[in-house]
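Annex B. Sample input.
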Amino acid sequence: GVAAGVLASSAVAWLLVGRPRPARGGWRVAELLVAGQALAGLYLLTNLDPVLARHYLPATASGLYGAGAVLAKAAFFLPQAVVLVLLPQLAASPRPGRTLWTGLAVLAGVGLLMTGVTRLAGGLAVAAVGGPAYRELAGPAWMFVAVGSALGVVQLLLYAQLAADRGRATIAVWVIVAAEAVLVATVAHHSLTEVVGAALAVALTATVLGLAWTARTTLVR
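Annex B, continued. Sample output.
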């Protein structure tokens, strides 16, 4: 059903934009491969911790983690409008410093707001996702929201690097993925909070390192 919906909406979108056809010589293969690898790494990063939780945690804790992952996804996708609006501007400007930092500030602010609200009203958030059966998740619910929010910032940082044709961002994403997998597999897999804590630590580390790298490579105008 999801596949059919995606195909139908893609066809309608293609008609609405005037039925464009690929131009000859318009495929920049190397750039597409670099971007594809980076986005594949980002996709894996945003979905890795539920898979690891399913592997290492008992059935009950794994089920709770699945509900928490829904909160993380909601926090990740909620401010996507910011990323969609900024991406063309990042690609069009050689030094989109102010635009990029404004977008990062908005994402960080929204993330902090969502995390704070969930910290104060985790029970309501969990009830909305899974109902009273998942009330044990009320305490760590804010950690899942923080993970999704941090990864939203990482996404914009990655897009900025790709827009500036900096292929090394691909390597960084896969290093982060490997670091999270190793961390959970070795020491942080004995409880739900350990797994989500590891995911949060990795997401925040990636955010800080990405901000530091961006500060070195962009100028705020």
